[in-house]
Design goal:
Strand content: under 5%
Structural class: mainly alpha
Largest sheet: 2 strands, antiparallel
Distance between the termini: 59 Å
Helix content: 55-70%
Shape: globular
GO molecular function: iron ion binding; oxidoreductase activity
Protein name: Desaturase
Mean pLDDT: 92
Radius of gyration: 18 Å
Number of strands: 2
Number of domains: 1
Keywords: Membrane, Transmembrane, Transmembrane helix
Strand order of the largest sheet: 1-2
Subcellular location: Membrane
Order of helices and strands: HEHHHHHHEHHH
Number of helices: 10
Main location: membrane
Length: 239
């Protein structure tokens, strides 16, 4: 089966736009169930800038999906069109783990001196992240992070259905990680449930906590920001 590039591009743009604005809308309303991590107000017009950069990132994601479809159409990458439930669950788990590995490597690279100064700094303009920070990237960063699906296909022919779950899974965790809310206050910074405070600390300090959801790669490579309770972090940044 051959992919139609215009259909692929249109569906990707539409799908990411729906997920981004829908996820951000929900994320901005989660304050009723979470404790603010940093209590200072965000910068004026910050969300406007985040939305602008995120729309550019979504266009980049569309182009990357077209490029991936081109490689599949020409037999350079392969996808599966049939899948069973056990295989689907295993593939989703594998994609989740690959997303974690890919993000840690990419993010660590983005924090090298040159790339941070010229590329990744745009994401860190959001010192206090919001749900709209999710795709707020320089276009080079959007290319790098958006390659997660394409690079996964270098190793295995995932089913189309499992591949479709990756952007949704990634966006949900990304929105939660950027909404500046601690949903499980008082837990250790290395707890799985403390991924939002870990990423908020990363935005404040700019060094360490390069992982996405799992804390294990930061632990393995000694890049964890030292233990901080979210409620201490909140008090430290009040006023």
């Amino acid at each position: 089966m051959q992919f139609n590039y215009f259909v692929v591009f249109g569906l990707t743009i539409f799908g990411f736009a729906i997920m981004y604005f829908g996820g951000a809308w929900i994320g901005m309303r989660l304050a009723i169930v979470g404790e603010p991590i940093v209590r200072r107000p965000i910068k004026p017009r910050q969300m406007r800038s985040e939305i602008k950069l995120s729309l550019i990132s979504i266009l980049i994601f569309g182009l990357l999906t077209v490029a991936t479809a081109y490689l599949v159409n020409h037999g350079l990458l392969h996808v599966s069109w049939t899948v069973s439930w056990p295989k689907l669950l295993l593939e989703i788990l594998a994609l989740f783990l690959w997303n974690e590995i890919h993000f840690y490597i990419s993010h660590r690279l983005l924090h090298t001196r040159w790339l941070f100064k010229h590329v990744h700094y745009k994401h860190h303009l959001s010192t206090i992240p919001t749900a709209y920070s999710t795709f707020s990237f320089h276009y080079v960063e959007a290319l790098l992070l958006g390659s997660v699906l394409t690079t996964a296909l270098l190793f295995y022919s995932f089913s189309v259905l499992s591949l479709l779950t990756l952007p949704l899974m990634s966006l949900i965790l990304n929105v939660l990680g950027h909404c500046n809310l601690d949903f499980f206050p008082g837990r250790s910074a290395q707890s799985l449930l403390s991924f939002t405070p870990r990423h908020s600390d990363h935005h404040v300090r700019n060094n360490g906590n390069y992982g996405f959801f799992l804390p294990y790669f930061d632990q393995m490579f000694a890049t964890s920001i030292k233990e901080q309770k979210s409620h201490k972090h909140s008090r430290h940044h009040q006023g």
